[in-house]
Amino acid sequence: MSSFEALEAECLHQFGIAPRKTDCRGSFIKLKWFRGLKDRIVLNDDVHMQMIIQFSWGSACLAHLYRSLCRTTRVDCKEMDGPLTLLVTWAWIRLPFLAPIPSNPRVFPIANR
User: Which residues form the Aminotransferase-like plant mobile domain (predicted)?
Assistant: First the structure.
């Protein structure tokens, strides 16, 4: 089984949709395909809804954040994408002098926790 066939089989198993060869580069699936995945998945029965719930979205966000942070270290990088709220919250917890001092503590309830 080639690397593309393995990717195709795993995506069919996990998502019910397989990427095309143009959506892959070597043994990697392009992020663009995953971003459009939510529009292509039809959640019309309990089986598909349970498949979505089973994914480890926190791990995926963290992996994407680390990848984005690595890309921003390049000289030619002009912007960054990813779950920047996680990065800001981490910075507020680890470096409290960066955190804003709100006059109303209910302004940032999740980040303050």
Answer: 42-100
